[in-house]
Amino acid sequence: MIFILIALALIFDFLNGFHDSSNVVATPISSGAIPPRRALLMAAVAEFIGPFLFGVAVATTIGDGLLVEESITTLTLIAGLVGAIVWNLITWYFGLPSSSSHALIGGLVGAALVESGLQAIQLDGLTKIVIALLLSPILGLAVGYAVMFVTLFASGGATPKVNTYFRRIQYVTLTGLALSHGTNDAQKTMGVITLGLVTAGVLETFEVPVWVIFLCSTAIALGTALGGWRLIRTLGGKIFRIRPVHAFASQVAGGAVIMGAAIAGAPVSTTQVMSTSIVGVGAAERANKVRWTVLRDLLVAWLLTIPAAALVAGLAMWLILALA
Fold this sequence. Notes:
By secondary structure, this protein is mostly helical. It has one domain. Helix content is about 80%, strand content about 0%. The chain is built from 13 helices and no strands.
């Protein structure tokens, strides 16, 4: 059973990279700074490296701070992953940049509630995770606005040649953003696998093995390399027309928020942070340049994700229990 769990976790991790690659590469591609295939490959390499450089604090939050080990089984985690995977596939098909993080949290909570009830949930841990997920997009919006404001002020007297600088510097900012994404998102899967190993008795205490870090980093990097083009189009062009200065500012803002959260052990949604960072950047230049209706659609997808993934995972858990 543990091998099924690991396989599903890596599938989720791959889809996370595939689904969330849009968050990392949409702005440098849309601004014409970096060719699409090169941007995806750069992001994939950086995402693989990230977890090895910046630790596994987020994995500990997910694996050791959300569910009560004694009240769940390996089947709980399997059903939770099924819920997250199914919802990610649905939102990918319709081109909705929903949150893989929300899907995973919703899936795990939904499956645990069906199998063991409220006693299976660490309410303090869940509260902290939800607060992080709610605050991070607000921070993305605020930091995006601030970075763009400062950037416009600093380059106010520059000639049009400054766009060449903003294009070139995106090789650096893209790498930083991808490092932050790999550090935060790949760790969520590491936490689930490690919790499964503890639940199955393979590990005595919660400590992420190096081979788990390697597998999860590889899976998210492969997913990123293949890219989710439907979502890249949504983030890269439907909110407003991205120019090099916008791409630069949004990458700096989003990368700073996501990396700060990863180091603090706070699981955040890269989709939410980058979407609101882009909105903040556009609003700092001119509020009416942002297509706010797109943000409304993103908000609907965000609000649906946790309950939808929880429902699917709960149904999967119910079927497993009925067939057992």
